[in-house]
Amino acid sequence: MTDEGKEPEDESNLLEGTYPLELSLETQLQLECEANGDLHSQETIKSLPLKHIQQDLLEKGARSDFYALSPKIERCSLDEVLIIFDPTRIHGTEFLLCLNVDSKFGYLNAQEEAEARLIDTDSPYVYYPPQPRLWDGRGSDKEIEGSWEKNVRAKIWLKIKRNVPRKTSILNFTNRDVKDAKDGYKACESYQETKFNFKHVHLMDRAVQAVPVTMEGHSQTELKHPKNIAIQYEARAFGPDEVAEIWKSDSMRNFLSRAEKIMMEVHQEPDIMGHLRPDVEAFYRRDEVVVIEETKFAYRTFFSELVFSKDKRITQVKWHPKLPYIMAMSVIENVSYEDYLESLSTRLVMPNVVMIWNMNYNYYPQVLLRVADDVTHLEWHPFEPETLVGGCVNGQLMIWDLTQYYSNLESNTCTWDHKKFLSPQYNKLYVQDGYIPLLHWSAESSKEHSHLCGVEDLQWLPKTVWFSYDSAYPKQNQMDDELQLISCDADSNVLIWALRKPPAEDGIDSSDVEDELAGKRKASSSGWEKLKLQSALPASISTGKKYSPAIGKYEPLNRVWRPVHRICFIDPKLKFEEQLLTTTITSVSVIDRPDLIIFSRKDSTIVPSDPPSPKSKPQIERKPSDTGSIYSRSSSRSHSPVSKLRKHPKKNSGPQKHRIEVPKQNYDSSEDDEEDSKSQETDPAQMALPTFLMAGTMFGSIVRVDLTKVKVDVETNNLICKVEWECAVHDGPVRFMRRCPHYEKLLLTAGGYSWALWSETNSLAIPVVLHYIEDPLFTDVAWSLTQPHRILFSDEKGTVQVWDIRSRKSEPFQSQDISGRTINALTPFNYQNSDNQLVHYLSVGDETGTVHVLEIPKHLNETYPEEVDDLKDLIETEVIRIRDREKLQADKKLATYETEQPDETDDFDEERRILWDENEYLKVYFQRERFVLEETYGEDWKKYLKFPDLPRKKHYVEIKRRGSSEDRRRQKELALKAKKKKGGSIFRK
Amino acid sequence: MGMMVINPDGVAVRTTMDSTHTNSYSAILSRLTDQARSAIRDLDPLNEVTFIRLRSRKNEILIAPDKEFNLIVVQTPADVESNHAKQSTQ
């Protein structure tokens, strides 16, 4: 059945080892490779073990289909052969038999490739470059607005069905009416249940809420490694070999030398900008705002009046205690005091008026105050804002009552109308027409009882102190609104004034006084007429027939006002004779010490019975306990006269009534009224208040007086005080005594070229702080109102100096030239400006009649808490230091006194001592020096000498003669001897 | 602050600063040096840059360019700090 003829033709297509084969149906079935059954066009290859074919050959022999190929089969070494079904009969036969490995795998590969058939390996690959085309949106271009929701949970799905019972029997339905049958209709009527009642029916609320479950999702392409050709990831760097090579090369060496040269050149000039730098910096700073804190006194305003104050010397500038913009100012002629006194007779009748200024209207003064004579001292009444008190050159005191214009001053309105009186037609200068009002004084003191020469100082007494006409002792002030004045003059008298009408004098009826006054008025009326014309008095006053110049509430005091007491002082230096202090008192200051009352009460029972007599040696250095007992004595003793006055009021009636109650006990008397003192202890009003007066004299000394220890001169009714101590400190008249406004026990005195601080906490008779200055002379002093440790001084050359107490240097902390002219009045004050801010000002009045108002810089008015305490501590430590020093000095004195005594008795040879001093000492010293140096340095000891120039050789001569070891021993002995001698026993051999 | 020697390509031969600073300084300042050199050459072909000194608020940069190498010095002069303080106030 083999087709031999076609075989060679197709052999070229056949792979080697493949032979065409015809299989009978029987063989096909036997080998399970039935054509179009087991093998078909899709599965053409079947693997067949070779054994099956060999067996077929054995069984069938020549009948076998494989017989033709039997020799090839025998040669085949494969276990499995392939039978390939070829339905198209390319090689003429239906089957092919593969008996070779190569052919077998070739057919298997061909079959795999045919099965894959994905790569069209036949058609050659052609590249088509992508063409630009329109964007084909697939949804990414759409904005997804809001969130989209999707049901992700399965909904519960229920199907409810009525269970229909299966009908087995067939039912026939017919039409029928209710009425057809008897019980055809049954109704279930609603009825009211009787068994129970619904009391309340609850309705249940039901709701369904849908809770959305939101999910977010996005997709973004991330470029995690932006790697491409353009980006370089690592810097190029040379390897170590390359670096070494370059470093060694000549080019590098040349380069380095050149670079070094140029670098050195550049470093010669460190600033790149050179001389351009200032210009460049100025350019950068062109818009810079520099904030510089003002450290100088800034000029604010000034007061000057062409008629009344120009070219006159300002004596006092006092700011109103309640209205900070009101100022009183007094002027005198700018001449020296001697010239002034000389010109008194030829002077114009019109004295210089006192001016009241308002800071807001500084063209003209608000009110002019008529004066009896030039005023040197002014004081506002602390409690009565419309009262001003002044001291005159002639010794009188004046009171002005400004009630008439106080409303103007208070409301900050102007009293004059400058538009009116500056108009050219205007020539009358009357107050009604808008001119500056002139106010007459309310009272002047009686000339007989005033000072005999000019008032040197005028101060208010502390408000707790009250001197009454009845008693010589200062008492507790019971009035809240009244104050007393103290004034002093050049005659060493101190006067105490009360703003009250004095009791009528002895032997003179009040009517007589009135008559006398009337007569005086008549006598002076012609003079007054002149004054009126010159000073533009109000028309009503000048034309009025009855002349009554004094106005205001103190009018009754006019010309009868006399001091409560006149106090004279006994000089403490005179031991055996009581003599009044003759030095001129130029300033006073009074302090009350209510704290000492308690002290006295405690000690009143244990008072020593023998009081110190005034004739005893003056006790300048007193121990505190000692002074306490003295105070207590004086205060307890002061009770007795008062108590007697109360006990026996009738005894003191008659002409004696208004006389000063004379204390019967003097210091000499040792009588002590125990009962009275005990009974009086409970009444503080009647007790003498411990009051001390500090006064400065013309000769620069400070005097302290206990005002509770007084005697009364029977003839003159003057009080005579003994001076407690006097301390000469200043080198000129003590012009100023100012109490520290923050610490009243601290007193500042200034005079000549020095100023001092005194503490009154304890009886220290020397100043706590004392400073001497160079030229120029102080002209006024003032405490800083805000800083307790700062003091302001003005001097002759127009400079304001600021001193700091804490500094130990005798030079100002700060000084500033204000006007170049002598400043006479220096007054700091606080002013509330329109923005409600407290501004600290300083007013400076100079000899040209101008008051300059300066703002105190910030660093001079800043305050810190506890500054006052610091000041107190400072003063206390200073006091302790002074005490210690005094004690030390006293001890020293005592010690020297003691040591000097035996020296005098000893037969001490002065010459010997000197001789030893010169030669012996040097010898011993050099020997010792040499000994020590030789011990430490050996032979070269001379190199280590500290002062080689000293004349040593003279003293070495005798030492050199001796042997070295012997020498040393000797030296030692000598040195020991010298030591002993140094001990001080050499003189007693 | 530091100094370095770089070749014209901006590769450091030797440096006293850390690598990041060296890289930034060398890369940026070599560009500046090239720019300055070309500027001077354009103005006058026979001229050559010998030294560049840059003053900034914080420091001062000194560049000494040469044919084969550039030397860069970064320093803080004494008066720069005060100058800086002054200028910052404006």
UniProtKB/TrEMBL annotation, chain B:
One of its GO terms (biological process) is microtubule-based movement. The keyword Cytoplasm applies. It is found in: Cytoplasm, Cytoskeleton. SMART domains: Robl_LC7 (SM00960). Residues 1-75 form the Roadblock/LAMTOR2 domain. It comes from the Eukaryota. Its main location: cytoplasm. GO terms for cellular component: cytoplasm; cytoplasmic dynein complex; microtubule. InterPro entries: DYNLRB1/2, Roadblock/LAMTOR2_dom. Acts as one of several non-catalytic accessory components of the cytoplasmic dynein 1 complex that are thought to be involved in linking dynein to cargos and to adapter proteins that regulate dynein function. Cytoplasmic dynein 1 acts as a motor for the intracellular retrograde motility of vesicles and organelles along microtubules. Belongs to the GAMAD family. PANTHER family: DYNEIN LIGHT CHAIN ROADBLOCK. This is Dynein light chain roadblock.
